[in-house]
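Supplementary Methods. Inverse-folding protocol.

Structures were first reduced to a discrete structure-token string of length 254. This string, shown here, constituted the complete conditioning input.
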């Protein structure tokens, strides 16, 4: 989301990421209000997120680690250094964690699932919950899938927002992946079993500002930017247009 209040540009993490995925789609929406084809939401994933938040909140209140930390031999606990209201804001899409971009002055923000604390180093641990169903769970950090690359950028952006808010951020972020691919489950019986995995990722934040500079230049320009490489919609549209032009020219020649 981009909001302009009193001349200050405000850009959400998802908007920043949409610019990386396809500058043209970003430009068409932000400058000309042309929306891309809509996609349905992911209500089951949202439900898993909500339940995980409750599970971690209970442990936060007791100052106890989650069993998955023990499983992975991590001396972590849910971070309890924020008051309830601030944590609620950090998690809410329209408020999120906020900071000012150093190179552009843009106000940037993003909503987190949670924060953990590395008790060995006293650093904040950045994370995101992911719900999926995959027989072979891929390592997002080595995957070439464009949406997996977006998962990496998501953690990077959260880490950067927190750094700008003077948090000491642990150099490794995590995905808590809930995978509905428990092969031992043989009937539905009104439930789906999930396997949980913690996947680590070495965070990288040194490119975030440069993307914001490009994004601002794109918005300030009257030139159409290039489209992204990973979207099927324009490929479909361009092929359809090429075919209809070919058919029309054949008809005209007759
Ligand atoms: S390639 Fe996809 S994302 Fe980019 S402009 Fe076309 S529809 Fe939008």
């Amino acid at each position: 989301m981009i909001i302009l209040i009193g001349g200050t540009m405000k850009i959400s993490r998802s908007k920043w990421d949409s610019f990386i995925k396809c500058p043209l789609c970003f430009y068409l929406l932000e400058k000309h209000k042309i929306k891309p084809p809509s996609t349905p939401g992911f209500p089951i994933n949202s439900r898993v997120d909500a339940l995980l938040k409750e599970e971690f909140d209970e442990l936060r209140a007791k100052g106890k680690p989650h069993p998955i930390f023990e499983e992975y031999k991590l001396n972590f606990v849910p971070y309890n250094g924020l008051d309830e209201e601030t944590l609620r804001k950090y998690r809410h899409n329209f408020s999120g964690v906020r900071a000012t971009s150093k190179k552009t002055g843009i106000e940037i923000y993003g909503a987190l699932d949670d924060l953990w604390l590395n008790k060995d180093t006293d650093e904040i641990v950045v994370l995101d919950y992911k719900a999926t169903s995959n027989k072979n769970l891929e390592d997002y950090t080595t995957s070439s899938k464009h949406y997996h690359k977006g998962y990496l950028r998501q953690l990077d952006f959260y880490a950067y927002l927190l750094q700008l808010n003077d948090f000491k951020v642990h150099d490794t972020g995590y995905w808590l992946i809930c995978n509905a691919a428990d092969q031992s489950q043989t009937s539905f019986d009104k439930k789906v079993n999930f396997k949980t995995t913690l996947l680590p990722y070495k965070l990288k934040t040194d490119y975030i500002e440069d993307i914001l500079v490009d994004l601002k230049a794109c918005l300030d320009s009257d030139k159409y930017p290039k489209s992204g490489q990973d979207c099927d919609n324009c490929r479909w549209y361009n092929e359809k247009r090429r075919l209809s032009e070919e058919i029309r020219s054949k008809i005209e020649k007759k």
